[in-house]
């Protein structure tokens, strides 16, 4: 009888440990590493000195760009990819440099399945309903089958050149893949893109792009709360000598309108 009681107590103890571990896995927030800031990019400070080799240890999930805006970047499962014109997707050379990147070590926890998403606005509304503290940022992963995606990449430009230029867009249909992105409170708009910002990459790693519109059949959503931001400033002469002014919501909205022309 005493032996059975011991086993019972041990079983209860292990169950509590497992329960505690699961709760911890679902609620443990992550840290964000960020190089540069959106206000600097808008102001033409588009040159950094950090390489992707150096960034490898900072996170396995995120987005960003390259020096002189040579396309955009998406990071998934520890690999970095370049979003080139028309969505052509290339593995990033470890020695390439960037003025702006946001990375976390993503923790796959609670997954929320959703069906029949008729628009990007609908998806964002659904995700927003899952965010229980909108005064902090989140890293967000969305995987599944997309009926339609309207995407774009960035055109190269020189330092100091206006950033709010019209970009060419492209679209894909019936594609399996992942949205890699973040949600930031509006009060952080000088630091980064406010609210939702997603880059898409296909499962076959051939198509990618900054997301402008979408429709989907079935998706799985997972989020990570961000507890702190490790912000690093580029140390290049371009960054030093650029007159950086704070971004505004109008600036972001005008850029997005230009993107979708």
Summarize it.
By secondary structure, this protein is of the alpha+beta class.
Index terms:
261 residues, globular, disordered N terminus
Which architecture would the CATH scheme give at its second level?
A: 2-Layer Sandwich
CATH class: Alpha Beta
The CATH topology annotation reads as 60s Ribosomal Protein L30, Chain: A
Beta-strand residue fraction: 35-45%
Instruction: Give the overall shape.
Output: globular
State the share of residues found in helices, binned by percent. 10-25%
Q: Please summarize the sheet with the most strands.
A: 11 strands, mixed
Output the structural class: alpha+beta
Gyration radius from CA atoms, angstroms: 20 Å
CATH superfamily: Hypothetical protein, similar to alpha- acetolactate decarboxylase, domain 2
Quickly count the domains: 1
Mean pLDDT: 87
> How far apart lie the N and C ends?
77 Å
Number of strands: 13
Low-confidence stretches: 1-25
The H-and-E topology, N to C, reads as HEHEHEEEEEEEHEEEEHH
Number of helices: 6
